[in-house]
Design goal:
The complex is a heterodimer. Chain A is mainly α. Chain A has 14 helices and 3 strands. Chain A has helices at residues 3-12, 16-36, 42-45, 47-65, 70-94, 114-133, 141-159, 164-180, 185-205, 209-219, 228-241, 268-301, 305-329, 347-368, and strands at 96-98, 101-107, 110-112. The radius of gyration of chain A is 21 Å and the shape is globular. Chain B is an alpha+beta fold. Chain B has 4 domains: 4-39; 54-164 and 215-254, Penicillin-binding protein 2a (Domain 2), CATH 3.90.1310; 258-617, Beta-lactamase, CATH 3.40.710.10; 625-667. Chain B contains 24 helices and 23 strands. In chain B, helix 14 (335-344) crosses helix 17, helix 14 (335-344) runs antiparallel to helix 21 (510-525) and helix 23 (598-617) crosses helix 24. The longest helix of chain B is centred in the C-terminal third of the chain and has 48 residues, at 619-666. The radius of gyration of chain B is 36 Å and the shape is elongated. Classes of the chains: A mainly alpha, B alpha+beta. Chains A and B meet through helix 8, helix 11, helix 12 and helix 13 of A and helix 1, helix 2, helix 3 and strand 1 of B.
Chain lengths: 370, 667
């Protein structure tokens, strides 16, 4: 490869997703530093460094993946999906236990969470299905049955781990894709009714006590038995106390937030709002919205339906995480424990988002490179 | 057909809808943010700066434990700890100096404690001194203003009224340990956290579920110094958040009698061993003590290092409940069951005389009797009365070990009694199959003889012995020992009542039991019975002494004086009995480790306990018996004196006669 082609390559390479994500991550890591810097435990106080390392690793992985052509994902969609379902079943039997759930597989020193990867696998397999069998025309009930089957298997496997948040997320991804694939409005109505009914049944029989409690707490805080409503209130106080301009960097005086065990993971946005106020929130939300718009624009400008659906799917991963997380910290939704993309502390979610960005970039590059 | 690119373009409508929906969603988020940050902003800001919301746990009071007569045995007493909440600690130097003066701890030590807890969240209290006095509490409370961050924490301490008495039975509570945490969460399906107190032994452990109650919580606003401002009831922010009252634990009424417990404990003074007393006709445990013991109150207060060391360095292990967690060879107390086996199997008849010399030879091995000169002609009564070893060697040689064991098992030996207490051990009554399985060797006839006198493989717990003798006394009914009468709430509502539980009935003829009981009666009440000197008065006791060898001994050692041997080689002394003989009401077993002999070490303990019982529950009967005993004793003395006089007269007469003959010789 001579110099001119390399230059040419970088000219054509779409860096916009990596850039946008890095900006958001930058916001996140500053916030993380602020949330944890005063912590007495040194391990806790240096979490932001760990986060940076993890991010660099995830982005590097994403960058590497961006050189794999989208048709490779198309070709191996079934294999990826099948293997991932296998891992999900495996984790139920030999998974590492943490906090009452079996979510992780230990492979030597590496801990992987099959349900995280499933978010992407389900997108590939659905995109391939729609490309192959129903690339044209509307989606009615009949066209929904098989994809629904594909989505419900991993969703249920994830819910019994138990990881309700991720399970529901897989279903939401599925519905977003189906909607994009011209799901008929009538069908959507029918599905909504069925969904509500089956949701009620599942709540009654399928949920663990602590999951029920979270939902109950949301619907009626007085039913709270273990104080999860208390976390929500502390979070609300933190957000509200930021007012318009915020209290400023490192000034999260809402000491009571120390009560939140997850103030560097699920509740980062409360701290961010406390310190940077409404103004900071508008800025962040603006960034996220910009990212989503770019995804959607890319989806309609690619030349292959598979790519288009994959991009929409990836957008939905980002969107649902962001929306659900923000809603839950400000008391609009029950606390389900989904991280805020790129801002929450946590290696496995960073990795997922890194991979997503890599795949997206590869799709974007495919438009004008190959 | 369209080209694929056109297909993609045809999705533009849906893409637009998605864009709209996404924007709408974040519109909602922004509206919510507006509401919180602009509309409620000032109020919430106030909250975050001036007020702090705290969730306080209201610990449930643990249930109380009562004796069978409703005397309080275990209850809760408040105790006070001085704590510091680092978050509110300002003006550190001055505050710590002041505190060190009040509590009499050096500033350096306080700093050391604070440093130790540096890693935990700053709002969490750090314990500076436990159990501070009322006076110290008062000073801290009044000087509170000058010592921000320092406060007094009330804590409910568990108090055991009789301290060391019966502490094995009652158990103790202490903080749940890190390894126990997951296990207990799973067991009780209850979200224990570090710092929770749980029952760690005895009743406290076994009935922890009932005694524990359920913690509640309340939300409080605290000011910048961590002092409570008010309890949140309701205002617009906290609407819907509710406090939860704690549910107190349930109370327990035991079958234990406090007085008997004290008597038994006192009788064991300076000794190592245990006493178990049961009601013969129900299996209710009246008393169960073990010595050396410990003071469970110390555990709930937080053990001091010295106290813990004194417990662990004691080689007699005061934490072990000797009544159910220690195996003893029953020694001669087991002969009763050998006798029952021999009579039932028809090996001997009750009045059949067997000649019993000082030793018994089986093959090349010589088995000694405890009495060097032997006992001579012996029937079954005498064999019990005088505890004739050779008699039992001879009868056991004629039986199969499994037949002997069968009868012992019928009376509840060799398996757990299933008393409601943790960590009971089962004891052991050997069979030929057991030995084969355990050692891979055939049963030897010689082992019959050893087992017949309660040595060798035979192992029992004091509780089992008491249960088995109660069964002998009540016609063969074996009870599961009952320790709890009922569980009831503070308002007096009875939640659960426990009733006697007859586990099995020994398949032994009435006659056999009569013969054996007669023998046991003679042990205590016949002139030459082994426990004659400890018969007491007014209790009509029947029983059996036992002296269990701790290790095998040479012949010279065997007959050397027990008190001269090193402590660890001395025999264990046992006595098991019941009373009154005509209508048995109570059965008592006592074991004194290295007490040398069953009669001198253990029998007086049983006598004391039974005397107390008779005096307390059957005073009329006791009086009547005492009077009869007195008269009988006087008659006995008279008779003996007359006999003696007659003997002396005879001697004198003989002497005189001799003298006369001598005189005549001299002539």
């Amino acid at each position: 490869m001579d110099f001119s082609t390399l230059k040419d390559f970088f000219k054509r390479y779409d860096f916009s997703f990596f850039l946008l994500c890095t900006v958001i991550f930058f916001f996140g890591v500053i916030n993380l530093y602020s949330a944890t810097h005063s912590s007495l435990s040194t391990q806790h106080a240096s979490l932001y460094k760990v986060q940076i390392v993890k991010y660099v690793f995830s982005i590097a992985l994403g960058f590497g993946l961006s050189f794999i052509q989208p048709k490779t994902y198309f070709r191996f969609a079934w294999l990826i999906y099948g293997f991932n379902v296998f891992l999900l079943i495996l984790v139920l039997f030999v998974g590492d236990k943490g906090m009452g759930a079996r979510r992780w597989l230990l492979i030597g020193p590496v801990r992987i969470q099959p349900s995280e990867l499933m978010k992407l696998s389900i997108i590939f397999v659905l995109a391939r299905y729609y490309k192959k069998y129903n690339s044209d025309g509307d989606t009615g009930i009949r066209q929904m049955i098989f994809p629904a089957f594909l989505a419900f298997i991993p969703a249920l496997l994830t819910i019994v781990e138990p990881d309700l948040g991720t399970g529901v997320l897989i279903l939401l991804i599925f519905f977003t894709i189906a909607f994009y694939r011209k799901l008929r409005w009538k069908t959507l109505g029918v599905l909504a009714v069925v969904g509500l009914l089956s949701g009620a049944v599942m709540y009654e029989f399928g949920l663990k006590d602590y999951q029920k409690r979270r939902i109950k707490t949301f619907l009626n805080p007085s039913a709270d038995a273990r104080g999860s409503g208390y976390n929500a209130i502390q979070s609300k106080i933190a957000i509200g106390s930021g007012k318009f301009w915020g209290k400023g960097f490192k000034n999260s005086s809402q000491a009571s937030l120390n009560y939140l065990p997850e103030n560097h993971t699920d509740f980062v946005f409360s701290i961010f709002n406390e310190e940077h106020g409404f103004f900071g929130a508008i800025l962040t939300i603006g960034l996220y919205l910009f990212l989503f718009f770019r995804f959607i624009r890319l989806a309609t400008s690619v030349s292959r339906i598979f790519d288009s659906i994959v991009v929409i799917g990836i957008m939905s991963i980002f969107f649902w995480h962001t929306f659900i997380n923000m809603s839950m910290v400000m008391g609009l939704m029950p606390v389900v424990g989904l991280p805020l993309p790129l801002m929450s502390y946590g290696g496995s979610s960073l990795l997922t988002f890194g991979i997503c960005i890599g795949v997206t970039t590869s799709i974007s590059n495919a438009r004008n490179m190959f | 057909m369209f080209s694929e690119e056109e297909v993609v373009r045809s999705h533009k409508d849906r893409a637009d809808i998605i864009i709209t929906l996404v924007t709408l969603c974040f519109g909602i988020v922004l509206i919510r943010l507006c509401y919180l940050q602009i509309y409620q902003g000032d109020m919430l800001y106030e909250y975050s700066v001036k007020n702090r919301l705290r969730k306080e746990v209201i610990s449930a009071s643990r249930g109380m434990i009562f004796s069978r007569n409703n005397q309080l045995l275990v209850h809760n007493v408040p105790r006070f700890d001085a704590i510091i909440i680092p978050q509110y600690l300002s003006n550190k130097k001055q505050t710590l100096t002041k505190l060190s003066e009040i509590l009499d701890i050096s500033v350096k030590d306080i700093k050391k404690i604070l440093k130790k807890y540096r890693a935990q969240a700053r709002y969490r209290p750090v314990l500076i001194k436990k159990n501070i006095s009322k006076k110290e509490v008062a000073i801290i409370e009044t000087e509170n203003e000058k010592m921000p961050g320092v406060s007094v924490q009330t804590f409910i301490s568990r108090e055991y009224k009789d301290k060391e008495v019966g502490s094995h039975l009652l158990g103790y509570i202490s903080e749940i340990s890190r390894d126990q945490l997951p296990r207990y969460r799973k067991r009780d399906n209850y979200n224990y956290k570090l710092g929770d107190f749980i029952g760690q032994s005895g009743i406290e452990e076994e009935f922890d579920f009932f005694l524990r109650g359920e913690d509640g919580y309340q939300f409080m606003e605290v000011d910048a110094r961590g002092r409570m401002k008010r309890v949140i009831s309701s205002n617009n922010l906290f609407a819907g958040i509710e406090n939860k009252a704690s549910i107190p634990g349930k109370n327990i009424r035991l079958t234990i009698d406090r007085d008997l417990q004290n008597v038994a404990y006192k009788a064991l003074e300076e000794k190592v061993g245990s006493v178990v007393a049961l009601k013969v006709d129900t299996g209710e445990v009246l008393s169960m003590v073990s010595r050396p013991s410990f003071d469970p109150t110390q555990f709930s207060r937080g053990l001091t290092a010295e106290y813990w060391n004194s417990l662990t360095s004691n080689e007699n292990n005061p934490l072990r409940d000797r009544a159910i967690q220690e195996h003893y060879a029953p020694g001669s107390t087991y002969k009763t069951f050998t006798a029952i086996a021999a009579l039932e199997e028809g090996v001997v008849k009750p009045n059949e005389i067997i000649k019993c010399g000082p030793t018994f030879r089986l093959g090349r091995r010589v088995f000694n009797d405890w009495k060097r000169s032997g006992h001579g002609d012996t029937d079954v009564y005498k064999s019990l009365r005088r505890s004739v070893d050779v008699y039992y060697y001879k009868v056991s040689k004629m039986m199969h070990i499994n037949d002997m064991s069968k009868y012992a098992r019928m009376f509840g030996l060799g398996s757990k009694t299933e008393i409601d207490l943790p960590r009971e051990i089962p004891g052991l009554i050997p069979t030929a199959e057991w030995k084969k399985k355990r050692f891979g060797k055939e049963w030897q006839l010689g082992e019959n003889l050893v087992c017949a006198i309660g040595q060798g493989y035979v192992l029992t717990t004091p509780l089992q012995l008491a249960i088995s003798y109660a069964a002998i006394a009540n016609g063969g009914r074996v009870f599961r020992p009952q320790i709890i009468k009922e569980i009831f709430t503070n308002s007096g509502e009875v939640l659960k009542t426990f009733t006697p539980e007859e586990v099995s009935k020994a398949n032994v003829s009435e006659k056999t039991l009569e013969h054996v009981k007669k023998g046991l009666y003679q042990v205590v009440n016949a002139r030459k019975g082994t426990a004659w000197w400890y018969r007491g008065r007014g209790i009509r006791m029947a029983g059996k002494t036992g002296t269990a060898q701790v290790r095998s001994m040479t012949q010279t050692e065997l007959f050397s004086k027990c008190k001269d041997m090193p402590y660890k080689s001395r025999h264990h002394g046992l006595f098991v009995g019941f009373a009154p003989f005509d209508d048995p009401k109570i059965a008592v077993a006592a074991v004194v480790e290295h007490g040398c002999s069953g009669s001198s070490a253990a029998a007086p303990i049983v006598r004391d306990v039974i005397t107390k019982y008779m005096k307390k529950y059957h005073p009329e009967l006791h009086k009547k018996y005492a009077e009869e005993d007195r008269i009988a004793y006087l008659q006995l003395i008279k008779k003996e004196r007359a006999k003696k006089e007659a003997l002396e007269k005879k001697k004198k007469a003989e002497q005189e006669a001799n003298a006369e003959t001598e005189d005549s010789d001299g002539l």
